[in-house]
């Protein structure tokens, strides 16, 4: 079985510290600066730098003149030195991204999740797609650190298993981490979708400037990624972020929990489509039409000014706003970022309404306004987060408790 | 104006590190062990230890024989070397505790909050009561590090101001921290009540063994203290923990937010008393009766087996359980601890019902059971937490962002 490079794993703690410093200094750092910042000896810095340069992960990029002495050579990250793959398994679509060492997207790919396909066949398909992406991008396997996969919860983090995601029929206790590692030959990191999305926001989105924020994930299902003190809140079993049973109305469709008014039943894309079909706002889709296609038709009609479609979006905004108030009251976050595979199609109408309703809600406890904004990352957010997790796992001198199978 | 000792403030970081180590080793530590654990030189450890011993904060407690060399003298905390005062301002009762350096309660006192008293007169009363407690306990002022005060939110943490706590009439923008510092001559730390209760649980309660838990605070109002990775989650403006507007029923009394079914309207003590009076389960109290007294009469009737009172408690348990499910789904905590001034009187009936309902709820996402338990600390929990905050603030080498006026 082929495996991703373990170059970095054997490099040890000093190497991780040095690489992390270089990653965070896009303008480059001299060996002297690295020694000063880390407290490591000049000899250690020199040895590790040499190893990183020889491995193609770091490059020498110009000289810095400081005073009368010898100019100092600057070390910079070589983004193409290593890669990671992020996969996002949403109940209706699979998203793939190839990230370079800087966390930038080299290429991405989206494919609908085939209805009635077994987990086995989908995992096989994932492995084939990953192989094809690497081939198309001419990235050798030994330059790939691993695969991160974002999936709907609940998960068993210790075992790397999807337990029984409500919207993924037939995925009960699927050992996704192990199976994908076997199928691809790469180490695999498994993370809940909303947590992965929050990781992406911290890495590359607007969230990075904030210590605390919440990420409202709008996919086939919904969830809330929570970032506290620049760290994703994962909870005691890595299942934090479920908001589906927050009740936002006294009535509504019957939820799986036996109650009515749960937000997870009220605002998800397939519910909006169903409402629009029932009230004649859009026609029923063809027999094999996906929620993705139907939701695009619905949002097109809303964008064209259909009063009925806009009324549905306004009710959706009110429901989301009510849940945001509950969550911000509990956690005292002052920013909520919205994104996920289905978000962009409705944001133009929904986001400003949410902003207004949240801040005018007499139930809001916060003494400061709650900012809401779109994610700058777009639909691939959870896949990018999954890829960033792999980079973090291998490159951070203090990797968080992650879920690796190798 | 008299001030609390600033001995520790001038001791600097090394002293804080050493004292923190000694605090956490009740069996005592030798100077050699301290040097080994901190990386500080033997000389520095010796100097700082001498200063701590001379100040009466640390004492030499026996010898430890290790091998053939000179026996090592063990250093231990001297709990009576320093003290802190914790005050909990609940809308119906004020609780005071005097804590020693180990966080143990030396003495406590509870007094009803006089109706219609102005904030000024109450702050004056607090200062008088604190002076009386110190006098009765024969604790000199210069041995008191400061006063911690736990109060209902929302607060302005930066300014030390209570903004407009819903249940404290007439307390709008009261500069409690400054006013109490002026009235007492001590530095004052202000914390929201639910956060203070969570601090107490971490210090001295069962919560200390857990990284993550939630603390359901049952006072005149309710709230949820949240502990993530052994740290109290305070939020961006120190106002985290408000759960009053979580909707747990499709109907109910009209809430201040204009909705019905908010838990903050359904389960608070005065609501249970009102229900019991309306349905003839208990008689109306005398004109000046406090919620505290009325609630005791109600809980006595329930304990005596009144079916009507028990039905009210069972509905209350169901409402609390529904909110606990929302919160544990969002944060993935696996333990919820219940306490606060009104809790103990109803726990015997309510707690087991909550345990059963939470874990049987089809809305519960967690793959592991949620443990619920009573706080081991009792009614003084928020006051004790406020006192512990003062100890933390002065003694921890990494004091959290706190709110001191001195």
- Taking strands numbered 1, 2, ... along the chain, how are they ordered across the largest sheet of chain A? 6-5-4-7-10-16
CATH class categorisation of the largest domain in chain A: Alpha Beta
Q: Radius of gyration of chain A, rounded?
A: 23 Å
> Which chain pair shows the most residues in contact?
A-B, 51 and 51 residues
- Name the CATH superfamily classification of the largest domain in chain A: ATPase, nucleotide binding domain
**What is the overall shape of chain A?**
globular
Order of helices and strands of chain A: HEHHEEEEEHEEEHEHEEEHHHHEHEHE
Tell me how many strands of chain A there are: 16
* Poorly predicted runs of chain A: 1-10, 399-406
**Coarse structural class of chain A:** alpha/beta
Summed over residues and divided by their number, the pLDDT of chain A gives a mean of: 89
Q: Domains counted in the coordinates of chain A: how many? A: 3
The CATH architecture of the largest domain in chain A can be named as: 2-Layer Sandwich
In terms of quaternary structure, the protein is homodimer
Beta fraction of the residues of chain A? 15-25%
Do you know the CATH topology of the largest domain in chain A?
Answer: Nucleotidyltransferase, domain 5
The span between the termini of chain A is 10 Å
Helix content of chain A: 25-40%
Organism (chains A, B): Conyzicola lurida
Pfam family, one (chains A, B): HTH_24
Keywords (chains A, B): Kinase, Transferase
Family (chains A, B): Belongs to the ROK (NagC/XylR) family.
């Amino acid at each position: 079985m082929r495996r991703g490079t373990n170059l970095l794993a054997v490099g040890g703690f000093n190497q991780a510290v040095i690489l992390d410093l270089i990653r965070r200094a896009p303008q480059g750092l001299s060996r002297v600066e690295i020694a000063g910042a880390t407290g490591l000896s000049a000899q250690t810095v020199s040895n590790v730098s040499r190893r990183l340069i020889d491995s193609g992960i770091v490059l020498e990029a110009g000289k810095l003149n400081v005073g009368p002495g010898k100019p100092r050579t600057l070390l910079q990250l070589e983004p193409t030195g290593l890669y990671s793959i992020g996969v996002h398994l949403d109940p209706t679509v699979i998203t793939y991204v190839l990230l370079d060492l800087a966390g930038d997207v080299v290429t991405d790919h989206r494919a609908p999740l085939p209805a009635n396909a077994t987990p086995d066949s989908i995992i096989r398909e994932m492995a084939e797609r990953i192989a094809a992406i690497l081939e198309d991008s001419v990235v050798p396997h030994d330059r790939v650190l691993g695969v991160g996969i974002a999936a709907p919860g609940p998960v068993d983090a210790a075992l790397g298993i999807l337990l029984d995601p409500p919207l993924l029929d037939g995925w009960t206790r699927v050992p996704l981490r192990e199976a994908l590692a076997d199928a691809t030959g790469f180490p695999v990191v498994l993370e809940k979708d909303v947590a992965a999305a929050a990781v992406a926001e911290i890495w590359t989105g607007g969230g990075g400037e904030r210590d605390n924020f919440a990420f409202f994930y709008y996919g086939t299902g919904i969830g809330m990624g929570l970032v506290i003190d620049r760290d994703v809140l994962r909870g005691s079993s890595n299942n934090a972020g479920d908001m589906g049973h927050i009740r936002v109305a006294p009535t509504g469709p019957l939820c799986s929990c036996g109650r009515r008014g749960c937000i997870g039943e009220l605002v998800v894309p397939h519910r909006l489509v169903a409402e629009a079909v029932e009230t004649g706002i859009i026609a029923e889709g063809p027999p094999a039409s996906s929620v993705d296609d139907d939701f695009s038709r619905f949002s097109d009609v809303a964008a064209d000014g259909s009063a009925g479609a806009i009324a549905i979006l306004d009710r959706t905004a009110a429901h989301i706003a009510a849940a945001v108030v509950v969550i911000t009251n509990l956690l005292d976050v002052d920013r909520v970022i919205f994104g996920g595979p289905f978000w962009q199609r409705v944001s133009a109408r929904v986001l400003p309404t949410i902003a207004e309703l949240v801040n005018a809600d007499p139930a809001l406890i916060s003494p400061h306004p709650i900012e809401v904004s779109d994610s700058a990352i777009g639909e691939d957010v959870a896949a990018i987060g999954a890829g960033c997790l792999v980079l973090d796992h291998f490159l951070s001198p203090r990797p968080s408790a992650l879920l690796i199978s190798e």
